[in-house]
Amino acid sequence: MTSEADRQETLTEAEMKALEERYDPEVRFRPLPPLLGWVVATLLFVLSCYHFYTAGYGIPPATFHRGLHLAFTLALVFFSFTLWSSGREPRTGLLTPLGLPLWDWVLAIAGAIAALYVPWIFNDLAFRVGDPLPIDVVMGTILIVVLLEAVRRSMGWPLPVIALLFIAYAYFGQAMPGVLKHPGASWENIVNHLYLTSQGIYGTALGVIATYVFHFVLFGVMATRIGLGQLFIDLASALAGRFAGGPAKVSVISSAMLGSISGSSIANTVTTGSLTIPAMIRIGYPRHFAAAVEAASSTGGQITPPVMGAVAFLMIEYLGVPLTTILTAALVPAFMHFFGVLVQVHLEARRHGLRGLTKEELPVAWTVFKAGWLTTLPLFVLVAILLSGRTPYLAAFYGILSCILVLVIQNLLRHDFGTALRESVRELWDGFTVGAKYSLSVTAAAALVGVIIGVVTLTGVGFKIAYMVTSVAAGWAENVSGWLAFLPFEIMSIESMTLLFTLLMTAVVCVLMGCGIPTTANYLIMIAVAAPILGLLGVQPLVAHFFVFYYGVLADITPPVALAAYAAAGIANANAFKAGNTAFRLGMGKALVPFVFAFSPSLLLVTDGFTWSEFALALFGAMMGIWMLSSVFAGWLFAPLKAWERVLLAISALLLVAPNLTATLIGIVLILPSVLRQLPMLRRPVAEREELG
Asked: Is residue 345 part of a domain?
């Protein structure tokens, strides 16, 4: 993966940064004049230092900690993001102190003061909840308005629009139709609930970002800076590059490894794709397919332990379980996603007769590890402390500390002591400022999602929607059961059909929501609304949370807003929509597996009622089902598939993923005709198999 041809085709660091900014509004930061840039960098560095210190020496009281984090974030959002993403910045003048427009100064200061107001009055807060003073309502109104604008700037319109609709629902409840009708709430009561209680802006979502997520974002940035991400890519190249379609397999494996420290689909796509996509194209993969492979692989990073973006830490708060439980539950579904992409990549390579990389094009695994083994130390430290049962933020503290230690050692090996010290300080400054900057949009979004969750708890709309959805699903189940009454056996009970239709509707909503808002916000909103729905049908809370999470992630490769696929298409110079459609097809494993563990929770390993027999059946069926469905899409098993074979394999795939022994056996029987016809062709050249197929 390091040949001269690759070097010429891969992107420069500046091109990678520009591409990431183009497709990810969360990192589309404004250029700043020198003096203001120094002020902003200092604030970012101080924010990182504060979190690094508190992770190791104790988190302050929750309200103070969340308020301080939110105050810094809101000020920095208005320093870092422009009013309009395509607008020109005004010149320095009387209305632009230090080169920043006056309205941005006003919003930054107002947001910071409003965020700090609740911690400031904390001792009197118990006397004001339910009976706020006029100043409380004013401050709460300011914070809500500033939050809406902060999220609009850093993420776009969808989430603020959703938040406004929820606020309108709370206010105009008496005008709502049918079961959605409620008495309505005054603006004073709305602000009281969203601002002064722990059910709104200062709730669990903001708390998790300030207490856990910030630290792990910082760890990921520091780990990448010391070279751990590059080590993963080089090791994946050495291990998988020589096989058929090698660069595509390298893309899958390196994205999985990089995903263990980075929860961003787009950052993962750009980082690994800048190397793997040109190599895939060079050996014969179509451009859109190369982009799709990288996009589908990179979205798996959000479901890969131990970092998993922000959602793993939200789960431990909402479910009240240890982080190790969440990470264990994520292992098999994450594996299934990458297995599904690998199978399709392999079948495509076999179908087109694509080669692997030559020995000259590949790094040597031992040489790569020997040169970069030290960079793995922080990850081992992080995982070891997590497994010991200590708090996640303490694990992040020691992980970041290990990154700093490795950074210093690397510089001492390259430079004299004085230069090494200067370089270490400079790189630490850069890492801490970048880490804090990457947390801005997710913090603002979490605080605004607190508004949505607050409205749900204030109005009880979650249970009303749950009643509506389950009623519709039950009606559909009754109809389908009636249509299938002529069969001599029962395919699925009415209860199971009701759950199936409910899951389908939930999945569709998750994907649609994910088209406009990031995974973390999507997860938070859907859990507030969907958890009561699935709970009514007896789905375990852990299963419900994972189901919603996985379908929210799937939105990154689901057109029309498949941002990871579009970023990959930018690298490949491919048709973006075609790349998105192909990426969705490659990610079908991720789409199937949530239904498997919804009906067979043992696949998550740590659910109530776990049995090894149920786990083995679900795992075998899911793997075989994904393989057969991949064969249908590729038109290839061991040789080209005939039309009747594709129909049989498609039916078998659906039966295999059903957690039922009878369905699994029928699925296996349906596979046999194709296997028996194609097995004798295995020793023949691909071209000859094409003719026989």
From this structure: no
As to burial, measured by CB atoms within 10 angstroms (0-12 exposed, 13-18 middle, 19+ buried), residue 683 is exposed
Residue 691 CA: distances (Å) to CA of 89, 644, 685, 686: 62, 17, 10, 9
- 14 assigned to some structural domain: no
Token code pair at residue 538: 């007896």
pLDDT score at 9: 52
Q: How many domains does the chain have?
A: 2
Task: Quote the tokens at residue 152.
Answer: 């609009």
Handedness of CA 489, 494, 498, 501 (dihedral sign): positive
Give the pair of three-digit tokens for residue 60. Answer: 């302050």
- Of the three residues 177, 202, 227, the one that is the final residue of a domain is 202
Helical packing angle, 541-554 and 519-536, nearest 10°: 140
Q: In which domain, by residue range, is 628 found?
A: 611-693
Residue at which a domain ends, from 202, 230, 264:
202
Q: Which residues of 574-587 are buried (b: 16+ CB within 10 A; e: fewer)?
A: bebebbbbbbbbbb
pTM for the structure as a whole: 0.84
Q: What is the reported pLDDT for 47? A: 96
HEC states along 303-337? Answer: HCCCCCCCHHHHHHHHHCCCHHHHHHHHHHHHHHH
Question: pLDDT tens, 599-611?
Answer: 889 999 988 888 9
Give the span between the Cα atoms of 51 and 46, in whole angstroms: 9
pLDDT at 692: 52
DSSP 638-652: SSBPPHHHHHHHHHH
Q: Which residues, 6+ apart, have CB-to-CB distance to 598 below 8 Å? A: 499, 503, 539, 543, 547
Contact between 459 and 167 (Cβ < 8 Å): no
CA angle 477, 478, 481 (to 5 degrees): 80
Residue 363 confidence (pLDDT) above 90: no
CB 594 within 8 A of CB 330: no
The answer to whether residue 573 scores a pLDDT higher than 50 is yes
- Mean pLDDT (whole number) for 582-604: 85
- Given a contact cutoff of 8 angstroms between Cβ atoms, the answer to whether 458 and 190 are in contact is yes
Domain contains 561:
no
Mean pLDDT for the stretch of residues 411-419: 90
pLDDT at 690 over 70: no
Counting Cα atoms < 13 Å in the Cβ hemisphere of 627 gives 13
Helix, strand, coil abundance in the chain, percent, nearest 5: 80, 0, 20
**161 vs 531, which has greater pLDDT?**
161
- pLDDT at residue 23, rounded to an integer: 63
Asked if the structure places residue 16 within a domain, the reply is no
Q: Find how far residue 585's CA is from the centre of its chain.
A: 18
For residue 46, the tally of other CB atoms under 10 A from its CB is 14
Residue 365, pLDDT above cutoff 60: yes
Of 147, 196, 647, 59, the residue nearest 444 (C-alpha): 147
Query: Taking a C-beta distance cutoff of 8 angstroms, is the pair 652, 680 a contact?
Result: no
Omega of the bond leading into 378 within 30 degrees of 0 (cis): no
